[in-house]
């Protein structure tokens, strides 16, 4: 599991355990306790939603960076092939020139 998933799982399980303990030891009336639980639950849901949005945006950024990296690699590969072809052509020209000089002597 990735660290972000571990963190999210730990956050949710900690919130759940904390809520259960709070219910068991609550000295307040049931209606007040339910209101507090409802408020905390909506807060946790909002925080979880924000965390999911943040993780989604990070995933999109990583995908975009990977796409750009792939384009750079492909461009470098093409340029390297072009340079190899130019070098081979140059070597061929040099060899041809050598042979022409030998034949003319």
TrEMBL record:
Protein name per the record: Gas vesicle protein
Coiled-coil regions listed in the entry: 41-100
Domain of life: Bacteria
Species per Swiss-Prot/TrEMBL record: Fodinibius sediminis
Family annotation (Pfam families): YtxH
Keyword annotations: Coiled coil
């Amino acid at each position: 599991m990735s660290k972000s998933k571990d963190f999210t799982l730990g956050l949710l399980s900690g919130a759940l355990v904390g809520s259960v303990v709070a219910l068991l030891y609550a000295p307040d009336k049931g209606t007040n306790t339910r209101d507090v639980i409802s408020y905390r639950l909506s807060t946790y849901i909002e925080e979880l939603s924000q965390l999911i949005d943040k993780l989604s945006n990070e995933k999109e950024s990583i995908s975009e960076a990977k796409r750009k990296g792939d384009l750079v690699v492909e461009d470098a590969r093409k340029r390297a092939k072009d340079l190899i072809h130019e070098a081979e052509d140059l070597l061929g020209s040099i060899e041809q020139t050598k042979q022409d000089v030998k034949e003319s002597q």
